Amino acid sequence: MNIVKSINTHEAELLAMSKLFLAAILGAVLVAGVAISPLLSGQLQVAHAQENSKTKKVLLVAVEKPIQVSPDNALHPGGIWYNAYTFNGTIPGPVVAIDQGDTLEITLKNDGKAIHSLDFHAGYGPEAALSGSVKPGESKTWTLKGEFPGVFLYHCGADGLNGIWEHMANGMYGGIVVHPTNEAKAKEFYVVFSELYNSADKGPFVGTNGTVGSFDLTKLWTNQPDLVLTNGMSFKYVPAIGQVNKLELNKDAQIFKVKPGELTRWYIVNAGPNDGVSFHFISGMISAHDGTNKANDALGTQLWNDETYWITPASGSVIEATFPSPGLYVGVDHAMKDVLRGGAFAVVADGNSTNSDHPPGTWVPPKGSDKVSGASMSEEQMMASNMTASDATASNATAS
Ligand SMILES: [Cu+2]
Question: For residues 260 and 350, what is the distance between their CA atoms, to the nearest angstrom?
Fold first, then answer.
């Protein structure tokens, strides 16, 4: 990889000053928002006491590292690399799964150079949701209880929200699944949508000549993302488009496989940081189970067999689908600018599909499982053996 520095010193100084200024203002606004938000919160809903509830442990390691975010294709000649911020070395961080009523013990270890933190949207109350700032070399452990079922975003909150926009745009997010008490058996998948704002990306059909890009504040401010990522890469799961005139998008693409007629459940997380996802399966129908129902032991249903579902930035939705006949279906963010930026994934319905043929990192520990994430090695083992995040990534990659 060839890293080219293209900003001259004067521009870099101006950029640093404007970033600092903006950070101060946005930090103040966000902190004020957090301070008054408890006054605005609604009525408490208390989850039913669960029998057989357990405690699961997860280790998330903050690591800053370059990541390939686009394959080498006609849209992005040479591929695109980005100086990412990650949990456990990947965009997104690993899926975390517990059952409603379970306790989750979270350890955040900071192996990076910046101050990082965690905000779990499944947590209720600051002591459950937030880690607080964790300095480089330090770690923090706390617990949350899975009170409300669904799929929720987790993300870095930077240093008490100061810089959160950059840390989220850089890749520090993932999803936590809280399986409801009443849940039908289904083949489940984890897919995270997000946008990238990259200083090195000059638009479609132009390569970056090996430059590893970094966060572009102006692009974030003006809402001009370069790429839409599914699980950390544009067109990660799309080999090609075009029946007559074929456009190859990813020669190494993996695809999702399902059996015709089987119930599938998709934990779709939209990390944003800015845009919504207009979720749709081409040739499919979707039912969206989002939020809690009155009994609070299953997910309420907003849609039955409808076409698209709007997933707002910084939220997750549980989408169920049954693919009736063999063939190709495509999950897309149906906003055309987002499809072009890479927000799509191929699903093939085939009688030969098995229960464990998930693309790496997309398997979700099912309800009742003792596992907490798709990693093949337990987090206790990881912590005991002092594994590095890259080791963790390697074991994630071998999970199925
Ligand atoms: Cu961070």
Answer: 6
